[in-house]
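W.,

You were right to be curious about this one. When I first looked at the sequence I had no strong expectations either way, so I just let the prediction run and decided to look at it fresh. Below is the sequence, 414 residues in total, followed by the output.
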Amino acid sequence: MHRISSQLNNSNTQYYLRKQEVRQAEMNRQIGSQSRIGSLRDDPIAAGHLVRYQSFASRVNQFEKNAQTLSDEFKVREGYINQNLQIMHRVRELAVSGATGTYTPEDLKNMATEVNELLKELVQNANAVGPDGNSLFAGTRTKGLAFDVSLANVPGANEALIEEVRYNGNNGVNKVEVDENAYLSVDNSGNKTFWAEKQQLMGQRDLTSWQAGEDSVISIDGVDIAVREGDNVYALAAKINDSGVAVKATIDPVTNGLNLTTTDAHQIWLEDKNGTALFDIGMIKDASQRPPYNIGTSVKTSGGSLFDAVIALRDSMLKGDHESIGGRVLGVIDEGMSNLTTRLAKIGSDYERAENNIARSKNTELNVTGMISREGDVDFTTAITDMKMLDYVNQATLSTAGKMYQSSLLDYIR
């Protein structure tokens, strides 16, 4: 019920003019921002969907970037491994030539010079740094060199040569998320890539009467294994074999000690994470020694790296030892090349998987963008039509108001 007064028409006119201006301002905002939702009350349900879609689109975009970074890293690492494989082909050619027995000791020394230079190139590639400045083959310890080199006087050489190459990285594995709760594992440990033989650790301590004195946790190649108080060596070996780690544990029938043998070519990584179980059975030194060079002094080891094989070839050539070149040395070189080929294939498959994740993320991103557009974007055709209609209504209102109030000050001058 309205109270009729002289101000009624003016008040109604002003009210509806302000209301039209608000609608025009909202339409201008939608066109300017290209979004029909300025606040949650505009469309609560669509706003809820829009927030979730935008959050998912942001995650998908990050997944794509993660996969692209991995793809680039895999390509660079693959190039270095492939180059090392080509170097090893040349090393093998020299080994086969040197094993024939047709070359003189002086010829073998000349060949050893080339082998030594190829060894330097192998070490240089193993210590390669990627475009981001991180070491490519040092596990997760990426800010330092993957391998340290020791020089020494070698019989038959006129200068100090590389005597030992020691791994300086770790066996950490990065998990990079490339989809919702889906990860790609990045294992760039140099003591796996550049290892030649299956490593074997043979404990010499009699463990017949050994029992764990307390609950502890040991780590083998990064896999934690719980040891309970009262466990004997047979229970320990069974737990190692059931852990899924690429190491097989056995009890030596002669020494009654614990033997550990890798199931593929890599260097064993032993740690006491909690307690002193491995130290107590003599497999590792005290906790002050860092793996993988913390193996107990009484433990016999076998199986070396690719660098050890090339060093053995060079030293055998300097000595003129044809028999050694054609025997164990050539066999270890072949095993090392086989492991390099396996690692190269693994990186190639990881690269393909990363590329597949990139393609999927791009496709998902397009779909999510469509959902965001459907829920939040303004329909320009409809918005412009509505804007024109509001402008027409506003002009009509102003025109009507002008006719209603045609009196002016001059009408009161007589």
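Here's what jumped out at me. Residues 207 and 233 are 6 Å apart (CA to CA). And, maybe more interesting for your project: The mean pLDDT is 88.

Coffee later to discuss?

I.
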